[in-house]
């Protein structure tokens, strides 16, 4: 089992028709490997370093950096973690070396027996979700597959945030909800997956 800590809850708020405020959720997984998922914007480095220090973790102690997709609010501080292997969407690399993995064929990437990376395209065509076995059940760190818990009953929230393939996104939202007990969305607090949520998502496919 792993321990999962949400270092920062993501958020998004439309200011007017030309501006919005947004940042992503940032999560820390501690176990056989130390993993950080989604490193926020490039202006958040001090916040992340301070938050990690609260768990006695230095950047060089992180084994994997996972960005659920390549948007700027999810990759901004990847360069803090120079001893880690990096997974950005479907791209797996360490320094200049790239490791080919068939995410496109639906294959999971296994980090260890408690952590795996699942291809969940929709928001972008190379989105991934991190599935983590914890004492409270399986937690899906889903990035922008889910914008927040409110987008279950109001799908216009995630659709208005941008979706390269809404049909795929609907399918993968339902699939992740079937697996997970908890979801960490891209722009909101972690929420518990109920049967009501599963039923609602399955009806939206």
From TrEMBL:
Residues 23-187 form the Metallo-beta-lactamase domain. GO terms for biological process: RNA 3'-end processing. It comes from the Eukaryota. It catalyses: a ribonucleotidyl-ribonucleotide-RNA + H2O = a 3'-end ribonucleotide-RNA + a 5'-end 5'-phospho-ribonucleoside-RNA + H(+). GO terms for cellular component: cytosol. It is found in: Cytoplasm, Cytosol. Its main location: cytoplasm. It holds the Pfam family Lactamase_B. PANTHER family: METALLO-BETA-LACTAMASE DOMAIN-CONTAINING PROTEIN 1 (PTHR23200). Endoribonuclease that catalyzes the hydrolysis of histone-coding pre-mRNA 3'-end. Involved in histone pre-mRNA processing during the S-phase of the cell cycle, which is required for entering/progressing through S-phase. Cleaves histone pre-mRNA at a major and a minor cleavage site after the 5'-ACCCA-3' and the 5'-ACCCACA-3' sequence, respectively, and located downstream of the stem-loop. May require the presence of the HDE element located at the histone pre-RNA 3'-end to avoid non-specific cleavage. Homodimer. This is Metallo-beta-lactamase domain-containing protein 1. It comes from Diatraea saccharalis. The lineage of its organism: Eukaryota, Metazoa, Ecdysozoa, Arthropoda, Hexapoda.
């Amino acid at each position: 089992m792993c321990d999962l800590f949400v270092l920062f809850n993501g958020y998004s708020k439309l200011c007017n028709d030309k501006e919005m405020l947004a940042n992503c959720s940032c999560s820390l997984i501690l176990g056989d490997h130390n993993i950080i998922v989604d490193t926020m914007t490039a202006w958040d480095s001090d916040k992340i370093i301070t938050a990690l220090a609260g768990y006695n973790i230095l950047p060089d102690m992180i084994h994997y950096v996972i960005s659920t997709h390549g948007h700027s609010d999810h990759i901004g501080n990847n360069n803090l973690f120079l001893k880690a292997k990096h997974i950005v969407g479907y791209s797996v690399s360490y320094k200049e070396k790239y490791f080919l993995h068939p995410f496109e064929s639906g294959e999971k990437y296994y980090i260890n027996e408690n952590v795996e990376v699942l291809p969940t395209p929709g928001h972008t065509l190379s989105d991934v979700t991190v599935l983590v076995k914890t004492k409270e059940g399986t937690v899906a760190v889903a990035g922008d597959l889910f914008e927040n818990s409110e987008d279950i009953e109001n799908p216009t929230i995630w659709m208005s945030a941008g979706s390269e393939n809404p049909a795929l996104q609907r399918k993968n939202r339902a699939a992740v909800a079937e697996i997970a007990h908890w979801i960490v969305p891209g722009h909101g607090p972690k929420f518990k997956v109920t049967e009501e949520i599963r039923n609602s998502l399955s009806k939206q496919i």
